[in-house]
Amino acid sequence: MAKQTAKRPARHGIVQIEVPAKPRKRPSQERSVMLVDSLKKAGREILEKEGRNALSAARLSERAGVATSSIYEYFPTMESLIAAVFEDCRDELRRKLPGKVQALPATATLLDGILLIVESGLGLLREWSLIDPEFNIRSAYYEELVRLSLVKPEHFCASFVIPTLMARFSEEMRIHDRERAGFFVCQTLLAVSRSMILEKPEYLGKPDTPFLLARMLHALLTTDAESFESA
């Protein structure tokens, strides 16, 4: 199957970035939805317990109890299945993270909330960097084009949870332009995370990385910019 690429203008020509594989089609009937869910569940179990090299059409067929022909009907390559599983993991994080921020105890601070978000996001990226580092890198390159609006935008986890964080710990915040601060926090999370994937993946596994990033974002949200400007 031919690989798709996204073209990005460059100083001396065109940079071609491979688009991560996607499922062939979306299931529409209940029976096909259940079949695809079964394939994704089996694929995730194989990836997490046995590793990327263990994932094959034959192994997936055996694990899910589904004919190989049915697999290819929806997932033409194993990478397209990996992409679907990865997207499910991110959707799950998007759904659950705002609730986890809201559920923090009354004694929790803004730094606690930021740390929860950072640890959750980096934890998912580290998990996938270990499962399939090549796929993780291709996704990071492609999503940088999404961030720059060079390809169709998608929803990022940070854009869902940052408003919840800012509302939950509103009294601790010292900035006046909250829309701008929220934008800075969201873009910093995205940019730093992708930089680690592409340049320093070993930083994802450093125990103090989430804390260092959380402290930086905490300073951004608790610095009185007007006092700085009048100084």
What would you note in describing this structure?
The structure is a single chain. By secondary structure, the chain is mainly alpha-helical. The protein has a domain at 88-230: Orthogonal Bundle (Tetracycline Repressor, domain 2). Helix content is 66%, strand content 5%. It contains ten helices and two strands. The protein has helices at residues 30-50, 57-64, 68-74, 78-102, 110-131, 133-147, 157-168, 178-199, 209-222, 225-230, and strands at residues 5-10, 13-18. The protein has a two-stranded antiparallel ribbon. A hairpin with a 2-residue loop joins β1 (5-10) and β2. Mean pLDDT is 83; it is low at 1-11 and 150-154.
Q: How do the SSEs run, as a string of H and E?
A: EEHHHHHHHHHH
Kindly report the average pLDDT value.
83
Q: Which value, in Å, is the CA radius of gyration?
A: 20 Å
Question: Which topology of the domain at 88-230 does CATH recognise?
Answer: Tetracycline Repressor, domain 2
Instruction: Give me the CATH architecture of the domain at 88-230, please.
Output: Orthogonal Bundle
Task: Give the DSSP E fraction (strand runs of 2 or more residues).
Answer: 5-15%
Backbone structural class: mainly alpha
Count up the helices.
10
Return residue spans where pLDDT drops below 50 for at least 5 consecutive residues: 1-11, 150-154
- Helical content band: 55-70%
Highest-level CATH class of the domain at 88-230? Mainly Alpha
Question: Looking at the chains present, what oligomeric state does this protein adopt?
Answer: single chain
Strand order of the largest sheet: 1-2
Distance between the termini: 61 Å
